[in-house]
Write a structure and sequence with these properties.
The protein is mostly helical. It has 16 helices and four strands. The strands form two sheets. A two-stranded antiparallel ribbon has the order 1-4. The longest helix is centred in the last third of the chain and has 35 residues.
Length: 439
């Protein structure tokens, strides 16, 4: 009789972090295509006969009022501040998983994308501020800080195995680092006057999440309700509510509750029962079966279970809806020659690659970081241009930073810069992969 445990390849320790990483990349690549489709649809509708109704739809007020408490917001607000909280939650989950379980556990490997992310935030902001020079809209410097993960991974997916896997890890880690950096800037730089009472309640809610985690409560609905309460408190506090997603993501445990050894023992007890219909009723058989089901679920860490559950929803639903709500630009009303458009284009398509390459080179030169195996400086440069694709986060921050009169020009600058960056980065990768193929 065949030993069935040997029918599949053995599972190594590396599989615990490489397989989730590969799944994350596949979802991001597919989500990039859907995001592009949503962008095209938004642009077409915003410049068609249905433009007025399409743009007005996102301003529809939705919410509830309880006495003096008014939670009525526009549909766009619920998307940008509510649904996008899940986006930042998943970003934080991936960052923590990579740092705790993945290749970023090596401090010198983690230092390279961290340095690149820092340069990709500092240099574009300085360039933007210099070009705006105190003009109206200078407050929108946060628009040029972040990278759109889905579009970047989508561009890399075109080349398949012809590019080094270390380039994907570098760019994904960099994008996650500067997304988190950007949302921290949003929370501090684009918030409103602080309501300390609401902020205190939000902190108390975070403390409650930590406390029930220590007590061993593992019910996801319980955490969802507490997370919703924290979000409402942050929304009322004046700090941008999406920061709640970042904090809760970083608080999520990475350890499994049921070890591999315990799981095998529990499953072995179930498999020891003879075949037949004996799983119903209040019996020890049924108890063991239910315990086995719970053990299988809890053999995955909370951080991985939540990522598996939420990442497809974020990539295939939340981000395309965000694009539909925010990417609609009446092109005939926008002037790409406005200073804000020029500053955004310069910041993203020029400042980003200079900052990423410059800070990465300094980190390696100083000995703080090392290039991952297979990653060369030409590939770093190509990836650095791709980081200028700032679509999702740039539109997100633009909606907070600019008045309606300047918003169209800012969005046009973001879309133009993202297209320029994608084109240059992709062309460099084409040249590099063709050269490697000839060699």
């Amino acid at each position: 009789m065949t030993d069935q445990k040997n029918e599949n390849l053995p599972v190594g320790a590396a599989d615990w972090f490489t397989k989730p990483f590969e799944r994350f990349l596949k979802i991001e690549a597919a989500a990039g295509g859907l995001l592009l489709l949503a962008l095209v649809i938004a642009l077409v509708l915003a410049n068609s006969f249905w433009a007025k109704g399409f743009l007005a739809f996102w301003e529809t007020p939705i919410g509830l009022t309880f006495g003096s408490l008014d939670f009525t917001r526009s549909l766009r607000h619920w998307i940008n501040d509510g649904l996008m909280t899940f986006f930042f939650f998943v970003v934080s989950l991936e960052l923590k998983r990579e740092v705790v379980l993945g290749e970023l556990r090596n401090p010198r490997l983690a230092a390279l994308p961290l340095a690149g992310a820092l340069g990709g935030m500092v240099v574009p902001v300085l360039l933007y501020v210099m070009l705006m020079n105190g003009e109206p809209g200078s407050h929108g410097w946060g628009t040029v800080m972040a990278t759109d993960t889905a579009f970047v991974i989508g561009c890399l997916a075109i080349f398949g195995r012809r590019i080094p896997p270390s380039l994907r890890l570098f760019l994904l880690s960099l994008a996650i680092f500067d997304d988190v950096g950007a949302i921290l800037v949003v929370a501090l730089g684009y918030g409103e006057a602080l309501n300390w009472q609401a902020l205190g309640l939000g902190v108390l809610g975070l403390g409650s999440v930590a406390a029930i985690s220590r007590l061993g409560i593992r019910s996801i609905p319980v955490y969802f309700l507490l997370g919703g309460a924290v979000w409402l408190c942050f929304d009322a506090s004046g700090i941008h509510a999406t920061i709640a997603g970042v904090i809760l993501g970083l608080m999520t445990p990475t350890k499994v509750w049921v070890s591999d050894t315990r799981l095998r023992l529990i499953l072995g007890r179930v498999l020891a029962y003879p075949q037949g219909e004996h799983w119903s009723g209040d019996t020890s058989d049924r108890h063991d079966l239910r315990q086995a089901g719970k053990a299988v679920t809890e053999s995955l860490s909370p951080i991985e279970r939540l990522e598996i559950m939420l990442h497809p929803w974020v990539g295939f639903a939340i981000m395309p809806v965000f694009a539909l709500a925010n990417a609609g630009i009446a092109v005939h009303n926008a002037d790409i020659g406005q200073s804000v458009s020029v500053a955004i284009i310069a910041g993203l398509s020029l400042g980003k690659p200079i900052g990423v390459v410059g800070f990465s080179w300094l980190a390696v030169r100083s000995g703080l970081a090392v290039l991952a195996p297979g990653l060369s400086w030409p590939f770093v440069a190509a990836g650095a241009f791709l980081t200028g694709i700032g679509f999702t986060m740039s539109l997100f921050i633009a909606g907070l930073a600019f008045e309606p009169a300047m918003l169209n020009a800012a969005k046009l600058g973001i879309l133009s810069a993202s297209a320029i960056s994608a084109l240059i980065g992709t062309l460099i990768l084409v040249r590099l992969t063709m050269r490697d193929k000839r060699v």
